[in-house]
Amino acid sequence: MSTYDDPAFREIILKSYEEASGREIRDIEFFDVLAIGRRILDVSSSFVVGAEQAGMRAGALKMMRKFSDHLHKVYELLKERTGLRLPEFE
To answer: Domain limits at 77?
Structure first.
């Protein structure tokens, strides 16, 4: 959510989940990185082989280009969480 909209939504959603489950969520950054990795792989493969060939709906590639700011936010979050840089993605 924080890469599509306001980054503050992450904390709001996380706090709500903790309240609903009655548990403290620890090490969520690990799962953030997994989700980021999956998103980057999905996007990268769709640009290489085409969205439909990558299992996405027709027009997905056009939409990703239109909302490329989201993809930049995802990548910035990866760098922030891990310090990793992906020159191919840049």
So the answer is: 8-82
